[in-house]
Structure formats: structure tokens, C-alpha cells
């Protein structure tokens, strides 16, 4: 039987940056969920998406990742639509990370094997990645019995292990204790310093300040403000952003 | 009352003494039902997997139908297979009526919907949870399905055991297409029906005992698999 894909196949392709979005529009039951005229993610650094609940941050990330098709508009990864072969250079940690029902090590190995790493090399690379994340002692534990912080760290480790050009993180530290949050932030910072392009949704403005080189503020499906971090917090241009930073509830 | 007591005693003696007539019947029962479950798996698992991960017009009608067929009355299946295999039937020339093969066919028909419907439910739930992550791994649809099958292995085995429980315990279909012929097509359930009506309660009770033990063992296995599935699934 002919199978189009199998493990071990080399899937690396040409670079995926810059990632651009053009006139993205998503509507559900008469409500506009996403209405983004244009967005380009290129260069270096970390972009932090902020905005009230329901602003469309997760949806924008999912559409840019090629996981959801917009009603209209398009997403291009270096001038081509996202496709399966190119996920080898892209990583994402979902809002609720899905860990496979296997050991901690096998979860990382699986991601490495999926992008064409040989079995022996995958094992060595997985152990190296787990050591860097402080998870090596748990390598043989079942991934599904980890604590919340360990699960997030494992999901991030798995996404980082394949060395993607671009990494999306959907609220990687929500509902984590301060220590776990610090570990995750340190991992993100170090990946960013190594040149990985990162886009992250933050539920907390202090985190946005700590990690972001630039901020995208969303409200009601639209990008209201896109500015360097200092300028966004020091002199927000829009009244919505001012209110949001001041902690006023936006509806 | 004394008769019953004596029958019980005799039944234990048959089971404990591994009576050859009894062994023959138990062996045929297991052979027929295990073969039927195996064939039903080969048909039902891909069918369930296909229904779980694809979208096409009329899909929900197919799913409702498959689910409803889980409750197929065995006697009706027996009757239909009988009509097909009888001399005047479409498959009459194969001369399969009153053979173990006919019984396997009937039980396969009973078990396919059980495996297909349960596998569909399991894999669809898993796919909802895993789809995005498996896409991010860059996997194609076949590779994603293979991963779902592995991740859902415990629940899928439970589906197979449910099918086996149904097959080994049913009497209506095998008695019609098998004919309950001694040494040829006599299985536990048909033997119990016959021996009871003949008044040979010892053999009937002995077989009943073994059937109960098998049912108990299957359910214990299901319980253990569920526990293993939950251990691997959640914190």
C-alpha cells in the first residue's frame, strides 16, 4: 500500500519567515471574531499579543498557524500557504497542550521523529532537551501524570526540540505557580536570544513587559495597536489600549 | 430438589474433570467467537476510523445506522444468514449452512456494528483532542490516524471485548445457521438450550458455569483496560 508520509522522511524545507496575514476575516453567528487587515511577522525578537478575553488572540494565532481556515483572506509563510511539509520549521504550544499517552521522553522523541530525525539521534536530542528544561529526572514518567507546570514545560520543550524558525505560544503560563512561570519565561527568553522568532499570547501585562520586544493589542477581533513595548506601555495611542493598561474592563 | 443438587454436583465434576465432550463444545465456542471477532475487527475498525475522521454528506445517517445495528436481534441475523446460505439462497452453492463457517458469518455480522460504533466514538473524541497537535507535528492523515489508534488502544481493546462478549453469549443466530449438530456445530449456548430441554441439567449447568466464568473474565479484563486507559490519560 502506498503511504504518502511516514516517519523518518526528511521534511525540512525553505525558511517560513516572514509570515504574513492579509485581510483575515472570521465571523460566527453574526459576530465578527477576527478582522485583521495586515500583519507581518518577520525579523527577530518576541511579539506579545495582549487584549481582553474574546479579542481574537488565540484565533489569530491558530489562523496564522494554518490550523483554522479564515472565512476570507489568506496567510502566507514566506509567500506560500502553510502546508504539512513546512511544519518542521514551525512550533506551537497550544492553550491546552496535548501530551501523548506515553512517557515524557517519548513525547519529545515523537516530535523529533516526525520531522525526520533518526531514532538514535532523537533519543539523544530528546534527553538533551529534557535536561535543559530540568525534566530529565522525569524522562520515563508517564506524560499525563505530570503537574500543570511540568506539562507546560514539557510541551514547550517538545516544541523547542525541533529547533523551529518560528514559535507560537498560546498563554504558556496561565494558571501556573510563580516558580513554573519563571522557568517557562527563562526558556522563552533563551530561545529568543538564540534567534528564534516568537509570538506569544500573554494573559498578564507584567509578562508582556518582561518578554515582549513589541506588543500587539487586540480588541473585538481587530489589531488596535502594534508598537514597541516601551511605546505601548509608555504612550498608548488608542483609548482602548489606555483603558486596558489601566485595568479597566473592556467590552 | 435432590435432582438439582445432584445436577450441580455432577456439573462441577464435569468441569473439574475436564470432560472431553464439554471441552469439545467450549473449544468450538471459543474458536467460532474469536474468529468472528477477528474478522469483525478487520472490517469494523477501519469503518469506525473512517467515520471518525472524515466528513461527507450523509455521515450522520451512517453513524446512526451503525449505532442502531449494535442492537441487532441475533435471531433476525440468523434468519437472514440462513436465507442467504440455504440451497435457494444467493450463497447456497457454497454449501455452508450448518457449518462452523456459517456461525462465524452470523456472529461477525452481529459484532461488526459494535466494534465500528465504539471505535468511531473513541477515535472521534481522541481526534477532537489531538487534531491540532498532530497537524503541528506535520503528520498526514494516515500517520495521524495511526497515532490515534495507538493512543486509543485500551479503549479500542474494550470495544473488541464487548464484541466478543456479545458473540460468545448469543444463541439465536448460531442455533439457526449452525443447527446445533453434535460434534460439528454444537457450542455452549446451543448445548445449554438443548440439554436443558432434554433434562440433562448437569451438562447444561456445567456449560453455564464456564460461560459465566468467561463472561466474568472478559468483564474483568475490560475493567483492567479501562483503569489502564485512565492511568495513561489523566493526572
Description:
The complex is a heterodimer of chains A (251) and B (235). Chain A has 251 residues and is an alpha/beta fold. Chain A has a single domain, classed as P-loop containing nucleotide triphosphate hydrolases (Rossmann fold), CATH 3.40.50.300. Chain A has 8 helices and 9 strands. Chain A has helices spanning 57-64, 104-114, 119-132, 148-161, 178-193, 205-211, 229-234, 239-245, and strands at 19-28, 31-41, 46-50, 72-77, 90-93, 166-170, 197-201, 214-219, 222-228. In chain A, the strands form 2 sheets. Chain A has a 6-stranded mixed sheet, sandwiched between helices. A 3-stranded antiparallel sheet of chain A has the order 2-1-4. In chain A, helix 2 packs parallel to helix 4 (148-161). The model of chain A is unreliable at 1-11 (pLDDT under 50). Chain B has one domain (2-233): MetI-like fold (Orthogonal Bundle). Chain B has helices spanning 2-16, 20-53, 59-69, 74-85, 100-136, 141-151, 153-169, 172-178, 188-198, 201-233. The longest helix of chain B has 37 residues, at 100-136. With 235 residues, chain B is mostly helical. In chain B, 80% of the residues lie in helices and 0% in strands. In chain B, 41% of the residues are buried. Chain B is globular, with a radius of gyration of 21 Å. The interface between A and B is medium-sized, with 32 and 19 residues.
Amino acid at each position: 500500500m502506498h503511504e504518502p508520509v511516514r516517519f523518518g522522511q526528511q521534511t525540512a524545507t525553505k525558511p517560513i519567515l516572514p509570515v504574513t496575514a492579509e485581510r483575515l476575516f472570521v465571523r460566527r453567528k453574526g459576530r465578527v471574531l477576527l478582522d485583521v487587515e495586515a500583519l507581518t511577522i518577520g525579523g527577530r525578537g518576541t511579539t506579545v499579543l495582549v487584549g481582553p478575553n474574546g479579542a481574537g488572540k488565540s484565533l489569530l494565532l491558530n489562523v496564522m498557524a494554518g490550523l483554522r481556515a479564515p472565512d476570507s483572506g489568506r496567510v502566507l509563510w514566506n509567500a506560500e500557504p502553510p502546508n504539512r511539509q513546512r511544519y518542521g520549521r514551525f512550533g506551537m504550544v497550544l492553550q491546552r497542550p496535548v501530551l501523548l499517552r506515553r512517557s515524557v521522553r517519548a513525547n519529545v522523541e515523537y516530535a523529533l521523529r516526525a520531522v525526520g530525525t533518526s531514532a538514535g539521534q532523537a533519543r539523544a536530542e530528546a534527553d538533551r532537551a529534557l535536561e535543559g528544561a530540568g525534566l530529565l529526572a522525569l524522562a520515563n514518567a508517564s506524560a499525563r501524570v505530570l503537574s500543570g507546570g511540568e506539562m507546560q514545560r514539557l510541551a514547550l520543550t517538545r516544541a523547542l526540540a525541533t529547533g523551529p524558525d518560528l514559535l507560537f505560544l498560546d498563554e504558556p503560563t496561565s494558571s501556573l505557580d510563580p516558580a513554573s512561570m519563571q522557568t517557562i519565561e527563562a526558556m522563552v527568553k533563551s530561545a529568543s536570544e538564540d534567534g528564534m522568532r516568537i509570538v506569544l499570547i500573554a494573559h498578564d501585562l507584567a509578562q508582556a513587559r518582561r518578554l515582549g520586544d513589541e506588543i500587539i493589542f487586540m480588541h473585538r477581533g481587530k489589531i488596535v495597536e502594534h508598537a514597541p513595548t516601551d511605546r505601548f506601555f509608555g504612550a498608548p495611542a488608542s483609548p482602548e489600549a489606555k483603558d486596558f493598561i489601566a485595568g479597566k474592563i473592556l467590552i | 430438589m435432590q435432582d438439582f443438587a445432584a445436577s450441580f454436583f455432577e456439573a462441577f465434576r464435569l468441569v473439574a474433570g475436564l470432560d472431553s465432550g464439554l471441552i469439545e463444545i467450549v473449544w468450538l465456542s471459543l474458536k467460532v467467537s474469536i474468529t468472528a471477532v477477528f474478522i469483525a475487527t478487520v472490517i469494523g475498525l477501519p469503518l469506525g476510523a473512517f467515520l471518525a475522521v472524515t466528513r461527507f454528506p450523509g455521515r450522520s445517517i451512517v453513524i446512526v445506522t451503525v449505532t442502531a445495528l449494535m442492537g441487532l436481534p441475533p435471531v433476525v441475523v440468523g434468519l437472514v444468514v440462513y436465507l442467504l446460505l440455504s440451497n435457494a439462497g444467493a450463497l447456497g452453492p457454497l454449501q455452508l449452512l450448518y457449518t462452523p463457517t456459517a456461525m462465524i458469518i452470523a456472529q461477525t455480522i452481529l459484532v461488526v456494528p459494535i466494534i465500528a460504533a465504539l471505535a468511531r466514538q473513541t477515535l472521534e473524541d481522541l481526534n477532537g483532542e489531538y487534531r491540532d497537535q498532530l497537524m503541528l507535528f506535520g503528520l498526514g492523515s494516515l500517520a495521524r490516524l495511526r497515532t490515534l489508534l495507538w493512543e486509543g488502544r485500551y479503549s479500542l481493546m474494550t470495544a473488541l471485548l464487548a464484541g466478543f462478549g456479545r458473540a460468545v453469549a448469543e444463541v439465536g443466530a448460531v442455533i439457526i445457521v449452525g443447527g446445533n449438530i453434535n460434534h460439528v456445530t454444537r457450542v455452549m449456548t446451543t448445548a445449554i438450550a438443548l440439554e436443558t430441554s432434554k433434562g440433562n441439567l448437569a451438562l447444561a449447568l456445567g456449560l453455564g458455569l464456564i460461560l459465566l466464568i468467561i463472561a466474568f473474565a472478559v468483564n474483568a479484563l475490560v475493567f483492567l483496560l479501562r483503569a489502564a486507559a485512565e492511568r495513561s490519560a489523566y493526572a
